Amino acid sequence: MRLRFAFTALLLTATTVQAQDMRRAAPLKGAEKSTGVPRTLPLKFEGPPTTGAITPLDLMTRLYKFADDSMMGRLAGTPWNDKGTDYIAAEVKRLGLTPAGDDGYFQHPLVSKAFADSSFIAVGGKRYALWKDFAPRYQGDSSAKITNAQVVFGGTWGDPPSSFLPNDEAIGKVVVIRLAKQPDGSTNYQLVNRAQLTSRFSNAAAIAVEQLDYVPPGYVAQNYAAPSVGVKPDGEEPVRKVPPYFYVTTAVADDMLGAPLAQAKTGAAGRTVDGYLHQTTGVAPGRNVLAILPGSDPKLRNEYVVIGAHDDHIGFNHEPADHDSVKAVMMHAAPQGADSPDPKPTPEQWAAIRVTMDSLRRLHPARVDSIYNGADDDGSGSMGLLEIAERFATAPVKPKRSIIFAWHVGEEEGMLGSGFFTDHPTVKRDSIVAELNIDMIGRGKKTDATGEDKNGKLLHGGPGYLQLIGSRRLSTELGNIVEQVNTRDKLGLKFDYALDANGHPQNIYCRSDHWSYARWGIPIVFFTTGGHADYHQVTDEPQYIDYDHMATVAKLVHETAVDVANLGHRVAVDHPKPDPHGDCRQ
Length: 586
Ligand SMILES: [Zn+2]
Known about the structure:
Blueprint: H1 9-13, H2 31-35, H3 56-66, H4 79-94, E1 98-99, E2 106-107, E3 110-115, E4 120-123, E5 126-127, E6 134-137, E7 144-157, E8 174-179, H5 194-200, E9 206-210, H6 219-225, E10 228-231, E11 245-248, H7 250-257, E12 269-277, E13 279-283, E14 288-293, E15 304-310, E16 316-322, H8 323-333, H9 347-363, E17 368-371, H10 375-394, E18 402-408, H11 416-423, E19 432-438, E20 449-452, E21 458-460, E22 465-469, H12 476-488, E23 494-496, H13 514-518, E24 524-528, H14 547-566
Parallel strand pairs: 7-8, 8-9, 9-11, 15-18, 15-19, 19-24, 22-23
Antiparallel strand pairs: 1-14, 2-14, 3-10, 3-13, 4-5, 4-12, 6-11, 7-12, 14-18, 16-17, 20-21, 22-24
Helix pairs in contact: 3-10, 3-14, 8-9, 10-14, 12-14
The protein binds zinc ion.
The site of zinc ion has 5 residues, from loops.
């Protein structure tokens, strides 16, 4: 699932609870009980060959492989995503499913975007060093030239927007922005809103923000200098509509202004700047995997039920952390993982963290961890989907409509793969009757904070816990089918619709791949066991997954797909369809 807002994952996972900081307590009996961390599952596991049925053991076998450290977090745009999709493609081939990509089972939606070393900024003939003195951000789709542009001081970020330089006094100029400082001289680099500055100074020659001195070490390399992925453009030479944007050190800002930034008055003119921000794009690794099970009815087989998950996650952290420290801090101080505010433990929480750490240290030695395994997000959906595919492929009777199994890439980067597939479908778009999306179906225990209610109160899982999102937003009938399947097959699942409320601040309906389908008016159901403390942390590992529960959820999705595929009519759309190019609104 996608992040709700930019998160200081780097700072957070670097949190280490020092061993010497821990109070020596008497040895605990039943450490599992006292920590709430299930320790019944191993770190590594290799299972026997999988079977046709959807079983907890098969899911374990698959997920321990797919979310193994060797997959390096499966980030879209990296070879490690390809390593994950190699496994999926080999499996669907073994199962005899029909390729449904435009390159066999694959579709290649991604491009990599980077700045070439020839990028520069110069003031008075002096060139600054890329990534050290200035850090451009990918903005728009083309390179940008800055020629002899006048510098002007645009105002201080943190002051009211009315104090900023008016847009018409910034036309064709390089606008320098200062950051407001705390009394101790620190500043919050994360508060700068690029989109807001870009729209304010939409006709500037460039926007330069004094920020680079304030980011943590390693941040520039990981977040700015590393290539970012985007989706392939739709032909046509892109036109630059937005000014280039870059961060500078305070020294460079002073130099650009020819006077100390700290004393600058809004509108003050500075020196002149030249520059070239050379943006490059190239095909990036990372693939959609698409496979079809042909339907048995000669007419209805030309209609499709899509079952989807996402094959990517968020890679690895360049600053490793102690696994158990992250686990303990998040458990007690950030129960929704990256969906919680940055953890700032209270004294009581520190005490609980230390107790947990003590008991974890008794169970095993400290372990350095840097890989975002994404066992739940969305290893659980991806491997659940493989199990569902295996179930379909080995069943003697096939459903009337065809099934498309879709592993989307780049969900974490903005639902890139599902957006691309639904914009460039390999079957007729209106032949897709429904999409069932599975993203994070491996958790949902009583100890997991699965989300918030509309008033911000934490919700928790429990036996049979499953969230259904969007299941009646286009088709009441589709939402009803899921309920009927659960009752008829005695699956015992308990559906939580709280996160599906209109206007819910966590915005879950807009945060996974089903939206790419729903925007085209295709009815969807999003199945998820919801959030937890390991969400987007290095602690989202296969050892913490509830495989029994995951198997039940996968069975529900399978049976729902069977019902929808065998229905005498297309599931009825009885709600208005959204604008496919508009913004998602929950
Ligand atoms: Zn995610």
